[in-house]
Design a protein that fits this description.
The chain contains 6 helices and 3 strands, in the order H-E-E-E-H-H-H-H-H. By secondary structure, the protein is mostly helical.
Length: about 160
């Protein structure tokens, strides 16, 4: 499971001591997955129902641009988020840099992951179009080049 799915498909909860009874009334318990024995967490991860909607919000700066100046940083962040891993060397998977590892990852990634990655860049597309529109509006407002006072009859 990748980091993105970890937060979108599961949530932290309590382990149940008893097994649910077959004839119990009410909603059945969700599937629970205990943490690894080596983890310092108590409780378990609870698998969300497929119809349960969530709105995942990452705190902090927005993800870097895909076409930005630091492709290593971008590639590392996308791999951290979408590639299953337990230790950092797992992300490189034999490659010498994150950009090459990310390129190989995207060539075999699920279409849903690729869609999410593309949607992350939508922020920058909107921001760029807004900046272009603002620049065009500023150019329109400044009008044609001004001439010296008095040359067009202004006194």
């Amino acid at each position: 499971m990748n980091f993105y799915d970890y937060f979108t498909l599961t949530y932290h909860g309590k382990e149940l001591d008893e097994q649910p009874l077959a004839d119990a009334q009410g909603r059945p318990h969700s599937e629970r997955v205990p943490y690894l024995a080596s983890a310092s967490w108590s409780g378990c991860r609870i698998i969300r129902h497929q119809r349960q909607e969530i709105n995942l919000h990452f705190i902090g700066k927005w993800f870097p641009r895909a076409n930005g100046p630091d492709s290593e940083y971008y590639s590392a962040q996308m791999l951290l988020l979408f590639k299953p891993w337990r230790s950092l060397p797992d992300l490189l998977h034999g490659f010498t840099n994150f950009a090459a590892a990310f390129s190989a990852f995207t060539s075999t990634a699920d279409s849903n992951i690729l869609r999410i990655i593309d949607n992350m860049q939508y922020f920058y597309e909107c921001s760029d179009r807004a900046a272009d529109r603002r620049d065009a509006d500023d150019a329109d407002l400044s009008g044609p080049a001004t001439t010296q006072a008095g040359s067009e009859g202004w006194q």
